[in-house]
Amino acid sequence: MPDDKTLPAPDPAQLQVIRTYGPGRFLISDREWRQPVLVTPTVTTAWNVTRAEELTLESLEALKAAPAPTELLILGCGARAIFVPPDLRAAFKAAGLALEVVDTGSACRIYNVLLAESRRVAAALIPL
Question: Considering the entire predicted model, what is its pTM?
Fold first, then answer.
């Protein structure tokens, strides 16, 4: 697909690496996803959020299953970042989770860089 963006990344056999993204799709390690996803270093799961405005702490329950606690969540909002209300940001901070809100392409790139640095990162991604 000519609109796909290929990203440099660590070995996908070892980690959940976002290899490509494009309109309506992600290739994470060796699996294609055509829906919103929650990506951690060890697992990718379908994410039941279709718009970034639907983000809640409850929508991220799957992060609790990660072997190591996530310290930074990167929210990929689609084509453009959204404004996250201060009370929701405060709830994330109280839960020990820093939040970075960007467009989905930036979220994919940031996640891979932080993953390569062995950071405890997760990405909540809404397709372009």
Answer: 0.87
